[in-house]
Amino acid sequence: MPARxxxxxxxxxxxxxxxxxxxxxxxxxxxSESEEINELVGAGRLNGCIAxxxxxxxxxxxxxxxxx
Length: 68
Hints:
Layout: H1 8-17, E1 26-29, H2 34-42, E2 48-51, H3 56-64
Parallel strand pairs: 1-2
Organism: Salix viminalis
Protein name: TWO-COMPONENT RESPONSE REGULATOR 24
Domain Response regulatory: 1-67
């Protein structure tokens, strides 16, 4: 992530608004708080989000929903 960005939230905002990225963006977070995850997905910045630790089940779930 470039030094001028302080978070993934800012990075995805710039990808969408500045660069016009339309492809799926899936976040990876250490937070398991669903409110934070829902906020990012609901704001249209992310197409999905996975909380750490990663697992095959979590990744397969996103794939089956068409998020990846």
